[in-house]
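Input/output pair, single chain:
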Amino acid sequence: QVQLVESGGGVVQPGGSLRLSCAASGRIFSINAMAWYRQAPGKERELVATITSGTSTNYADSVKGRFTISKDNAKNTAYLQMNSLKPEDTAVYYCNGDLLSYLNGGLLQRNYWGQGTQVTVSS
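Output:
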């Protein structure tokens, strides 16, 4: 059973920083891509940043220059470094992973979600 577990959320003042982590566990063969999404109250879930199995990254315009996505392949963990945080960054942040895992002697490609971690930016 593959699981994604986020950590690192919390309350921070405007201009502050937080680092989110997303650890993938289970019988993982490989990770094709990982991403961070967020959902603010009353709004749809939106894509924040993605990173591929290589080092290619992509960001939403609203976070470019402030957020950095990275990963540690050995730990099957992705990170989201968030700097210069604004009140409008307040949301539940979700990790998403496109993974290959071992199943019944073969490989299963599937998309997984973490449970989410709350980020609140407020003075």
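The longest strand covers residues 91-103. The chain has no helices and eleven strands.
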